């Protein structure tokens, strides 16, 4: 009996142990599945206990138990460690709930975010003896949250920076949301000026039906677009193009309308401008003396402007009309074959122009014309006709001849003048130099074109010229800086003074640089320098001698004043006169000395 009782007790104990292992296994599985671990700190014994779930989160071997408190805090990310310790201290001292979110560093260096909750166990003196808690790995949730926040921020940034108006309108037509671009379009100072207002109040009454149509269609689940005008809060009218789509909730019920609207005022203005341009072009085409016509592959007239119809009618001897042949036999076989050859070249696919010189059959005056031939192709690329344009260049040819003659005169002046004309880049590189460079500085045109201005500029003048090149670029196009003198090295090695005027023509398509006109002023500079030197010497002589002259002059004036008093005895008066004569002689000697010195400074 006793044995059976013991067997029963052992069986019961075994059952309890088995049940405990089962619960422990379930706990481990739950911790693993939920990425949870539990922990406790014994403040009396200063020990720390981690469950297997904690070790798994930290990627540590559970056999490394027990773990001390220092190791536990070392697993906390350095940037969060002080905050975690302060939170623990505050929990223990004030009794607030332990609720901490921080980062941990695993043994492999990974960073994981966890949230930890814990309860403090206190003794009868309310002293903390133990804290028991759990923490969960929420890294994936945090990363997903951050990703979602970034996506939301990205979307919000796109909407906020979107140049088109994005708005949400309630089924009743009340404005619920609108981005900054939309607020700007309706001239609102801020959302408070617009949100909660009816959108229809902003629509031009003449276009209200168009806006209402896309709003109502969106409420029916239909996407649509239209154009309408709005009148902003400050009275500005704009043309808008809007696309409206339905916005539904999770159950599929349409709760509002999303609209994307863009300002097409410029587009509408351009379209209206194109219509006006088209009408103007039609008027210009028929008002020009140029001939414009097109023909099909059978040489029959498709369309033409009035001047061409007048010419071909005159040549045919009868009024021309669409469908008539553009080949005319009445002007002779040579004329017929020449124009037939032009048309055949164009209809074969060649795009070209010709030059025609002839006596006008109408005015009997000589005319010069450029005639252009361009094939007309259908969408499949097949040639179906020919577009022709005859441009009257009679006046242009006359002006061209005048220009050629003028250019010859100009070149003769440039080549034989005393001024050098150079076109420089902004860095001082020569782009053009007139032939007179040889006469002024001895260099050939070829030599000068391979040189930079600074290659033969006097070193002392380089800073001033750099400054002038910077200044000329900042003045308006076509303007010039005041003339300036500087030194350039002659081909023979001597330094020559030149007077230069530079003009900003960098944006002139025919010039594209800084134009420098300069000529040799070396002799003039030397003469001016000599005169200035002479003047300085004369000033020095005059200043010096004036002090010498004043001494005998002062004596003379003093003696005269003394004699004029009448108080001198005859003997004293005689001596005073002797002194007066001596002072006069002294003054005369000084004057002669000044004259001699002045003669020595005169430049021969």
From TrEMBL:
The protein's annotated catalytic reaction(s) are: ATP + protein L-histidine = ADP + protein N-phospho-L-histidine
Q: Which part of the chain is the PAC domain?
A: 98-150, 224-276
Asked if the record carries the keyword Transferase, the reply is yes
Which principal EC class is assigned to this enzyme? transferase
Keyword tags: Kinase, Phosphoprotein, Transferase
- Alphabetized Pfam families for the sequence: HisKA, PAS_3, PAS_4, PAS_9
Annotated CDD domains: HisKA, PAS
Q: EC number(s) for this protein?
A: 2.7.13.3
Q: Which InterPro entries match?
A: HisK_dim/P_dom (IPR003661), HisK_dim/P_sf (IPR036097), PAC (IPR001610), PAS (IPR000014), PAS-assoc_C (IPR000700), PAS-like_dom_sf (IPR035965), PAS_4 (IPR013656), PAS_fold_3 (IPR013655)
PAS domain sequence ranges: 406-472
Q: Which NCBIfam families match?
A: sensory_box
Question: Would you tell me the protein name for this molecule?
Answer: histidine kinase
Q: Which organism is it from?
A: Leptospira vanthielii
């Amino acid at each position: 009996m006793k044995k059976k009782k013991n067997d029963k007790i052992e069986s019961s104990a075994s059952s309890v142990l088995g049940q405990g292992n089962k619960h422990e296994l379930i706990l481990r599985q739950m911790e693993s599945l939920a990425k949870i671990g539990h922990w406790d700190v014994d403040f009396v014994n200063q020990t720390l206990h981690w469950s297997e779930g904690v070790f798994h989160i930290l990627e540590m071997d559970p056999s490394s138990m027990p773990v001390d408190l220092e190791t536990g805090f070392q697993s906390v990310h350095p940037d969060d460690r002080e905050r975690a310790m302060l939170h623990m201290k505050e929990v223990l001292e004030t009794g607030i709930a332990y609720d901490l979110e921080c980062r941990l560093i695993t043994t492999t260096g990974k960073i994981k975010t966890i949230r930890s909750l814990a309860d403090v166990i206190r003794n009868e003196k309310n002293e903390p003896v133990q804290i028991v808690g759990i923490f969960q790995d929420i890294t994936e949730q945090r990363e997903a949250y951050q990703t979602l926040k970034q996506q939301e921020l990205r979307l919000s940034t796109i909407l906020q920076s979107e140049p088109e108006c994005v708005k949400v309108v309630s089924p009743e037509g009340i404005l619920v949301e609108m981005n900054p671009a939309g607020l700007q379009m309706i001239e609102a100072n801020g959302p408070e000026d617009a949100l909660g207002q009816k959108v229809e109040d902003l629509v031009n009454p003449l276009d209200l039906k168009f806006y209402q149509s896309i709003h109502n269609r969106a409420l029916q689940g239909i996407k649509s677009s239209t154009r309408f005008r709005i009148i902003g809060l400050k009275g500005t009218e704009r043309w808008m193009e809007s696309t409206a789509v339905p916005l539904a909730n999770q159950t599929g019920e349409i709760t509002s309308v999303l609209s994307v609207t863009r300002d097409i005022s410029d587009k509408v203005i351009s379209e209206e401008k194109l219509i006006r341009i088209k009408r103007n072009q039609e008027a210009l085409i028929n008002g020009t003396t140029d001939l414009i016509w097109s023909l099909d592959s059978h040489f029959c007239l498709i369309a033409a402007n009035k001047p061409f119809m007048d010419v071909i009618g005159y040549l045919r001897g009868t009024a021309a009309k669409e469908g008539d042949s553009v080949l005319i036999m009445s002007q002779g076989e040579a004329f017929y074959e020449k124009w037939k050859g032009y048309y055949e070249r164009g209809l074969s696919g060649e795009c070209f122009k010709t030059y025609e010189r002839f006596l006008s059959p109408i005015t009997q005056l000589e005319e010069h014309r450029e005639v252009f031939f361009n094939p007309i192709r259908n969408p499949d690329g097949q040639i179906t006709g020919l577009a022709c344009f005859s441009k009257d260049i009679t006046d242009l040819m006359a002006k061209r001849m005048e220009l050629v003659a003028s250019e010859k005169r100009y070149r003769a002046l440039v080549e034989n003048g005393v001024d050098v004309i150079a076109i420089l880049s902004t860095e001082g590189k020569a782009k053009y130099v007139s032939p007179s460079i040889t006469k002024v500085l001895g260099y050939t045109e070829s030599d000068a074109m391979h040189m930079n201005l600074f290659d033969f500029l006097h070193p002392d003048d380089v800073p001033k010229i750099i400054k002038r090149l910077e200044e000329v670029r900042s003045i308006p196009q076509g303007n010039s800086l005041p003339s300036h003198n500087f030194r350039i090295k002659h081909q023979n090695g001597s330094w020559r003074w030149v007077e230069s005027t530079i003009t900003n023509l960098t944006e002139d398509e025919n010039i594209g640089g800084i134009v420098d006109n300069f000529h040799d002023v070396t002799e003039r500079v030397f003469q001016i320098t000599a005169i200035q030197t002479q003047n300085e010497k004369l000033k020095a002589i005059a200043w010096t001698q004036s002090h010498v002259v004043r001494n005998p002059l002062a004596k003379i004036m003093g003696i005269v004043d003394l004699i004029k008093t009448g108080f001198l005895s005859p003997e004293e008066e005689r001596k005073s006169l002797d002194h007066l004569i001596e002072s006069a002689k002294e003054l005369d000697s000084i004057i002669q000395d000044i004259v001699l010195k002045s003669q020595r400074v005169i430049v021969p």
